Amino acid sequence: MLLLVGLGNPGRRYADTRHNIGFLALDEIVRRQSLRAGRSRFHAETAEGPIGGDKVLALKPQTYMNRSGDSVAAAARFFKLGPERVIVFHDELDLEPGKLRVKTGGGNAGHNGLKSIDQHIGNGFIRVRLGIGHPGDKSQVTNYVLSPFAKAERQWVEPLCEAVGEEIPHLVAGDAEGFMSRVAQRTGTNR
C-alpha cells in the first residue's frame, strides 16, 4: 500500500490557487488511473485502487495546509505505513512554473503543509515538487500562493497535472527518474 497525498486547502475560495496544485495533480491521478472515490475519512477526501501492482490510497486532507500532518499521520497509522510509503504532491516556489522534481526527505523550505507532515511522520517521505515559480519578493509569497492561477498559467498547469496523472505508475513502481523524464517529455519542459 502506498499513500498518495495532494496538499491544498479545502473550499471554493482556494480551489484554483497556486497552493492547491497538489490537489489538482491528485485529482488527475484519481481520474486517469480510475481510482474509486472513497468515503471521507482521516479528515480527508479519499480514493483508492490499484496503480500498477500496488494498492494506493489517494488522500486530500481537509484540515487546511498547516494541519495536513494530522490527516496524513492518521492514514499512515491506520495502514501501518512508514514515511517511505508516503508520496506528497505540493507546490514549490523554488522551481520554475511547470517544472517537477521528486526527492525523498529534506527540509520544508517554510512550506506549512510539509512542516506539519514532518512533525507527524518524520521527513523520510517522497516529495513531488510542482513548480509554481516565485513572485520575486518574499513579502508577496503568501498573497501569491493563495491567489488563483492566471488564465495564461493554465497553459502549463493543466498539462503538468495531466502528465502527472498519466505517468504516476512509474513513480509508484519506484522509478522516480523515469517519472520525471516522462512528465518533462509530455509537458515539453527540460529537466
TrEMBL record:
TRNA binds at residues 14, 64, 66, 112. Monomer. GO terms for biological process: protein quality control for misfolded or incompletely synthesized proteins; rescue of stalled ribosome. CDD domains: PTH (cd00462). The record marks 9 as: Discriminates between blocked and unblocked aminoacyl-tRNA. It holds the Pfam family Pept_tRNA_hydro. Its EC number is 3.1.1.29. Belongs to the PTH family. Hydrolyzes ribosome-free peptidyl-tRNAs (with 1 or more amino acids incorporated), which drop off the ribosome during protein synthesis, or as a result of ribosome stalling. The keyword Hydrolase applies. It comes from Limimonas halophila. It comes from the Bacteria. GO terms for molecular function: peptidyl-tRNA hydrolase activity; tRNA binding. NCBIfam families: pth. InterPro entries: Pept_tRNA_hydro (IPR001328), Pept_tRNA_hydro_CS (IPR018171), Pept_tRNA_hydro_sf (IPR036416). PANTHER family: PEPTIDYL-TRNA HYDROLASE (PTHR17224:SF1). The record marks 91 as: Stabilizes the basic form of H active site to accept a proton. This is Peptidyl-tRNA hydrolase.
